[in-house]
Design a protein that fits this description.
- This protein is α+β, with helices and mostly antiparallel strands.
- It has 3 domains: about 5-530, Penicillin V Acylase, Chain A (4-Layer Sandwich), CATH 3.60.60.10; about 560-630, Immunoglobulin-like; about 635-720, Immunoglobulin-like (Sandwich).
- It is about 25% helix and about 25% strand.
- It has an 8-stranded antiparallel beta sheet with strand order 3-8-10-11-12-13-14-17. It has a 7-stranded antiparallel beta sheet with strand order 22-15-1-2-23-24-25.
- A hairpin with a 4-residue loop joins strand 12 (about 215-220) and strand 13 (about 225-230).
- Helix 4 (about 175-185) packs across helix 5.
């Protein structure tokens, strides 16, 4: 974050004045909001994961979270525009009464002079008592900072909680609902985001006091990912995530550090800690540390208890990440009970793919002996009906910063859904049905009145029945449909990346923003229409009582990168088309099968009569013409009129005529030969036709056939008798 220390100093001075004043409210506001503990409990049902760039197939940081709260909730995806703010303007949030007529202010923090544009996936106003903007949990700002907030953590020790209690939201403490908005409106780096939230907790304190649970969130920029945990009212730890590890948290406070879980507090380049992180628990005799307190185990020190790795989401998640399918394998691989280490070694043998990461957030333990048939919450399963919005971030350090982050968002549970790609730092608007005013339930009368979330929630409802056989009957075809669709999106992303990289280098950011926005809106609309059709077919299938498993009547792949995929046409050099190859922008032609033409050797491809290098990046449709070199005549053989090869010396009779012919090496086309005799007085020869008329004279002459193009000759001796 730019000038973070100066900004924090100004904020602290301002807040010293503000905290001495009563919290202001809009005119007419009366009463107190409902207790916020229920909200925190709901928000606590989430699962997060992390894969360092050294553990993934494509060398990207891949991380994300599933938000699990209630099947009745709805999510809307939108763009929050940049805004200018006068000195003293405050970011203020609070709670509405049930009728949404009375708003009570709770939390406030000074705005920067200008807030950034950002995408945000927020709750529908129909499900939210917070305001003025409903809780937004995930997004990316125009500087490329992305955040997913939050994963509610397991409870801290009661002694910690008593000594440093959480500051209730009602009393102005920082609540989870404000984290994403505060970060996205101003942070320019992942570390800067962590410093911002740390400074707010230092002054305001962190909420969740009613539950004894802290919060964790992940934040990234194009180059790195950070994990932040607030542990009590004013204690926190943030670490830069390691490149060679994975992370997994089903709402559990974790040790964050080396392989044994030690956090090195002296490594200030990669660690941000609250001022009393060590002294508070040390004074309570619960500190677990070493090396003169420079290294600490966070969970061992702050968490209220240990974690069982062999049950619930821990088993589902690590079983998936390590390829475990039986309880015996789990017992042999995972510890039974210990304080959780957030970072772990990746599996051996193969790296993780983006698609695998996406499916983790919909996993029910399929293919294992702990599969959950129809999970209604995340007590025992990651994938469940209470999931409202799983998301996966892909940070690609090898890409230009403007294109480094792709935000893949799936509205509704992932099991029967699909993640759509967004360049959240670039898009300036969304597909209207993603964020238009929503209904509290699915509108079956007019599907077009449903948001993207409502459409995919209804599709999940149609597929996710409690009976395992019926779940397969209705859902397997839908799952297979989206699997092909998802993998095609991932494959096409590489084409989009190449095109937008070129566009950025040639036309600048504004052109890329327009293109990225059009792309995301187009693929969202296509996907929306496919989901509507699947719902209609499934409903008809059930109504008709059709036997067997439902299979979609149509197949569809997304047209995400279609306009950047060009036809490369190959011809034989004489206008006959040999084939066509689709090639994505910036990619190279795959060498086609080498064409053949009798008497010629293929000599490469020409573009507009000039040689074309197949390693050239394709930037538009082209036609390549085959070029040929004529095979040379390397041998001539004299034959009789029937084509039989003659011996080097033959006997002929005077006063008789003989017709000679020839053939050349079989890979060449004969151009013709010139016939000649060594002694013309013995015979008369047609030099072009090979007809020899013997005169009335005996003797010996040499007959020569000479190729007209290459000069290759063949001779035979004629013995005239």
């Amino acid at each position: 974050m730019k000038n973070i220390k100066k900004e924090i100093a100004v904020i602290l001075a301002l807040l010293m004045i503000l905290t001495a004043l009563p919290m202001a409210a809009h005119a007419g506001t009366i009463g107190e909001p409902s207790d916020d503990g229920l909200w925190d409990a709901g928000g606590g049902a989430c699962t997060s994961f992390y894969m360092g760039k050294g553990t993934t197939e494509n060398g990207s940081y891949i991380w994300g979270r599933s938000e699990d709260i209630s099947a009745s909730y709805s999510k809307l995806l939108k763009v929050h525009e940049a805004e200018d703010h006068a000195p003293g303007d405050m970011y203020i949030t609070g709670t509405w009464n049930a009728a949404r007529t009375v708003f009570t202010q709770r939390f406030r923090w000074p705005y920067p002079s200008r807030t950034l544009r950002y995408t945000i996936c927020a709750d529908s106003i129909l499900n939210e008592d917070r305001g003025p903007e409903p809780y937004g949990e995930v997004g990316t700002n125009e500087k490329g900072v992305s955040i997913s907030a939050t994963v509610t953590l397991s409870a801290n020790r009661t002694t910690i909680r008593s000594a440093d209690p959480f500051v209730a939201y009602n009393s102005g403490g920082l609540d989870e609902m404000d984290v994403a908005s505060l970060v996205l409106m101003q942070a320019e780096t992942a570390r800067g985001a962590c410093e911002l939230i740390a400074s707010i907790i230092d002054v305001r304190g962190a909420s969740n006091g009613g539950t004894g649970m802290g919060e964790g969130f992940m934040v990234s920029d194009p180059n790195e990912v950070w994990f932040f945990q607030w542990l009590s009212g004013h204690q926190y730890i943030a670490v830069k995530c390691p490149d060679d590890r994975i992370g997994f948290s089903p709402n559990i406070m974790g040790n964050v550090g080396d392989e044994e879980g030690w956090t090195d507090l002296s490594d200030t380049a990669n660690v941000i800690a609250s001022p009393r992180l060590v002294s508070l628990p040390k004074g309570l005799n619960v500190l677990v540390s070493k090396d003169n307190d420079t290294k600490i185990k966070i969970a061992d020190t702050y968490a209220s208890g240990t974690t069982n790795y062999r049950t619930g989401r821990m088993r589902v998640g690590y079983g998936y990440l390590y390829g475990l399918t039986t309880s015996a394998q789990v017992n042999a691989t995972l510890p039974s009970t210990q304080y959780m280490n957030y970072f772990a070694q990746p599996r051996q043998g193969s790296k993780y793919s983006l698609y695998e990461a996406m499916r983790l957030l919909g996993c029910r333990g399929e293919g294992t002996d702990w599969v959950v048939a129809n999970p209604t919450n995340n007590t025992s399963s990651i994938g469940n009906s209470a999931t409202v919005e799983p998301h996966v971030f892909e940070n690609r350090p090898d890409m230009p910063p403007e294109l480094a982050t792709v935000e893949w968002i799936c509205l509704a549970p992932a099991e029967f859904g699909v993640y759509l790609p967004y360049f959240g730092n670039l898009v300036t608007e969304m597909f209207v049905k993603n964020y238009s005013p929503d209904t509290s339930s699915y509108n079956s009368t007019n599907q077009d009145n449903n948001s993207m979330y409502r459409i995919f929630r209804e599709l999940y409802v149609q597929c996710a029945v409690s009976n395992a056989n019926d779940r397969a009957r209705y859902g397997d075809g839908v799952r297979a449909f989206w699997e092909k669709y998802q993998k095609s999106l991932i494959e096409q992303q590489a084409v989009v990346d190449r095109y937008l990289t070129w566009l950025l280098s040639t036309q600048g950011r504004e052109a890329v923003e327009a293109e990225a926005t059009a792309l995301s809106m187009s693929v969202a609309e296509q996907t929306y229409e496919h989901a509507k059709r699947l719902i209609a077919e499934l409903r008809a299938f059930k109504t008709a009582g059709t036997s067997g498993n439902y299979t979609p009547s149509f197949s569809a792949l997304p047209d995400y990168a279609g306009k950047y995929i060009y036809d490369v046409t190959f011809t034989d050099g004489d206008d006959e088309v040999l084939g066509t190859q689709p090639v994505g922008f910036g990619a190279c032609v795959q060498p086609p099968e080498v064409p053949t033409l009798f008497g010629y050797t293929f000599a490469g491809w020409n573009l507009d009569d000039a040689p074309f290098d197949l390693e050239t990046a394709i930037t538009g449709p082209i036609t390549l013409d085959a070029q040929w070199s004529r095979n040379p005549v390397t041998s001539v053989t004299i034959t009789d009129a029937q084509g039989a090869a003659l011996a080097p010396s033959i006997t002929v009779v005077r006063n008789c005529s003989y017709q000679f012919d020839y053939f050349v090496n079989p890979d060449a086309i004969p151009e013709g030969v010139t016939w000649s005799l060594s002694s013309p007085g013995y015979a008369v020869i047609d030099p072009d036709g090979g007809l020899v008329k013997m005169l009335n004279k005996t003797g010996t002459v040499v007959l020569t056939a000479k190729d007209k193009l290459n000069g290759v000759t063949c001779i035979i001796v004629l013995r005239i008798v």
